[in-house]
Predict the structure.
Amino acid sequence: MDGAIERREELIVVASAGNGTASSRFVDRRLRISPNMEHRPERYDDLTGEVEAAVFSSLERHLPPTMLDFPRDAKFQYMMEVLSRYLPEGERTKVQKHKEYRKLIIKEYKPLHRELFSMNPAAFFLPSFFKAVSDNTEESIRSIMSEPSPGIYTFPMLQPSFCQMLIEEVEHIENTIRSCGTKIMKPNTMNKYGAVLDDFGFDAMLTKLMEDFLSPISKVYYPDVGGTALDSHHGFVVEYGNNRDLDLGFHVDDSEVTLNVCLGKQFIGGELFFRGVRCDKHVNSDTSPEEIFDYNHVPGQAVLHRGRHRHGARATTAGHRINLLLWCRSSTFRELKKYQKDFSSWCGECQREKIERQRQSIAATKMQTFLRSSTGSVI
Ligand SMILES: O=C(O)CCC(=O)C(=O)O
Ligand SMILES: [Fe+2]
């Protein structure tokens, strides 16, 4: 069917780390050999990128004493500069390029709809969604959800006016970057068209979206993949149609929980196809018939699924489709996962193997019991 699965990774994101001016303010920029154990480092687990959050918290104790009380963004920026010297050449270039890109955005980009940048639930969300999440009970959340296939939830979410404004903002972003004679950075390694919203100042709004609106839902539906401990995100839009991407290959997301909402415009095609949840080891294993599910995008309607739920998007054969994606991650879940081998609570293949082991063990016990009763001897 869809060929080998590709694990998607977004381009390195240092977007939430400030504007890169911090380091020039320091006179003594040398790290200290001995850590200052009295200093309580900040938490960095909400920041996404190549380097683990714990590295920043440890390194912070080695900062020059004058820097210890600097704002977190300034410390992060400085540490990122230090660490980038140790990255392989390719990574260093990526970090540098991204820094320049961010500087350009800060200089040239003037938002069209400023009201999009701070969370305004009544203006962004449909009343049914807003109420269900504000009531914050399992019952209220379940009342607006459909589960057309196990682990995939769909629900009406966004106001048409919000979708329209966000589409206009994305067009404005594209025009701004184009007029600077440069290109928008790809939202991830597979989609070529769209933009990383976090790069354009949406970081705080999307953090609120995740914390206040998606976490309550993920706690109910995805506790097994870190849904109770989401702590960072990658937010972007993808675009399909003429002169853009047509379809999207079979893949898993670099997320624990993915929110995918269609913003519009008008289009034909673009259906999502799902093929069961898999851990790293089983990502290319066969699909069983009950795992096959296709979903038609509807503007304003959200789909929520585990990042490890294998999926892709069929060709958008006419019109223009724009979707908002929020890949939500949990650093705790990722850390714990390193020490685990069995993911039968969410991986379809681990589950199948476990059931098979149990079946064999029951069959062996039955055989022993039978032999014991028919021979009268202890085996
Ligand atoms: O085009 C779509 O709706 C799917 C996008 C997607 O799966 C992704 O960006 O991870
Ligand atoms: Fe995806």
